[in-house]
Amino acid sequence: xxxxxxxxxxxxxxxxxxxxxxxxxxxxxxxxxxxxxxxxxxxxxxxxxxxxxxxxxxxxxxxxxxxxxxxxxxxxxxxxxxxxxxxxxxxxxxxxxxxxxxxxx
Length: 105
What we know:
The structure is a single chain. This protein has helices at residues 5-26, 55-58, 68-80; strands spanning 31-38, 41-48, 83-89, 93-101. By secondary structure, it is α+β, with helices and mostly antiparallel strands. It has a single domain, classed as Heat Shock Protein 90 (2-Layer Sandwich). Strands 1-2-4-3 form a 4-stranded antiparallel β-sheet, covered by helices on one side. Helix 1 runs antiparallel to helix 3. The radius of gyration is 14 Å and the shape is globular.
């Protein structure tokens, strides 16, 4: 995938939704954000120390998410070939990892 303006906007919107969700729902006192480029991919990681949530309860099926924000994040990621993983546990916060592989130019 070539990194272009549209992809950068989609990546920003995914990050923006993740941050908005954290600010609205997590009750976090700390959010750590890291953006890196490694092994041909942009990797965006966001960690918080909030209340966490049960991702399985948010899932309606293997590919659909009940939260509009989560669904939007996953749909945008799919459009640009990115992968999102979410690790969350009650009382231990949430880690959101977004990986956008890029082709060599």
